[in-house]
Amino acid sequence: MTAAPPASVYLDYNATAPMLPVVWERMAAAARHIPGNASSPHGFGQEARALLEERRVQLAGALGFGAREIVFNSGGSEANNTVLRGLAELPRPVHLVTSPIEHPSVLRCAEWLERQGVAVSYLPVDGEGRVVPEAVGELVKPETRVLSVMAANNETGVVQPLEALGRIVSGLDRETPILLHTDAVQAFGRIPLHVADWGFAAATVTAHKLGGPKGIGALACRGSHELLPLVLGGGQERGKRAGTESILLVEGFLAAVEWVWGHTDELVARLTGFRNRLAELAAGIDGFFLNGAGAERLPNTLNLGFEGVSAESLVAALDLEGIAVSSGSACSSGAIEPSHVLQAMSLPPERVAASVRISMGHGTTVEDVERCAEALRKQVARIRGLGSTGKRPA
Known about the structure:
Blueprint: E1 9-10, H1 21-33, H2 43-63, E2 70-73, H3 76-85, E3 95-98, H4 104-115, E4 119-122, H5 136-139, E5 144-148, H6 162-170, E6 179-183, E7 202-206, E8 217-221, H7 247-262, H8 264-282, E9 288-290, E10 301-306, H9 311-320, E11 323-324, E12 329-330, E13 336-337, H10 340-344, H11 349-352, E14 355-359, H12 366-386
Parallel strand pairs: 1-11, 3-4, 3-5, 5-6, 6-7
Antiparallel strand pairs: 2-8, 7-8, 9-10, 10-14, 12-13
Helix pairs in contact: 1-7, 2-7, 3-4, 8-12, 9-12
């Protein structure tokens, strides 16, 4: 009789989090009871509109923005594109400052903007994966219009110095203000964020990193910055994003926000303990290293590896044991590319090629952590036994 495969262990929350039960329940209730289009004038439509605006107020409160400053959209990539691509419509010269460790939705936008004649500068990054805020003064120009830096890195978990960036930019003697934008997708709900207080007028968030549904996020943007809608059509979201709003997805988004906000202290303490315990156990394996170890990191994220062990081989080996972790950046073809984040940290190529990301969340248990550590120990030894060719010696 064949033994049953072991239960799966999901440790890739920074890619997406399994949906919370309360989210399913709230979305199902909305699907049953709120059938209307929020733009329709009849009672069903007005019921949908009232719920949409109530959820907008809740999200605004969680972010420290006003309700009219929240634009619901499809997620983080759309929000980042909405902020940045509008620079192409401004008279030249125009300039963007960002960092080389941003999410691809920011970096690909920056590349596209350069092709449109927009100048782009990149903040330097230290060996721990933090941008260097003191470099801002050297990079900004009279024509700088946007500075975009993520709140916490999706690969290393390293928290970025937003407060220092905001303080430095606010102290510059300028006629034209700089819009400070942060991609807060990984940080939102995991660490305290006071981005508006730090001078950031725009922030990107999404639902599925929290345990909400995929396909829903929001951009918070205040002040006079004119957003260029990526989707044209009706006047939804005050003309900032055309398309019928999904009450179903918005309801799921806010259900996740409410649940996470109600469990933040417990989650932070539990996940920090899991993160540190896994690092402690992995450190007992020969050749262990931890990226970003000297920086403040998200409580749920580890970026680690073992000398002489390919990350791609280790991810595949763990997957065969039912343990899901990630490596590098998965492109549309599914191939694994070297991490641009780790390269920006000036890590040696062999270390970049050996680094894996382990990210935990609301469903992670101590048993998951122990099982992952044991699998790492076993699979690192097995891969080393196969040699650099990945084949058993003759």
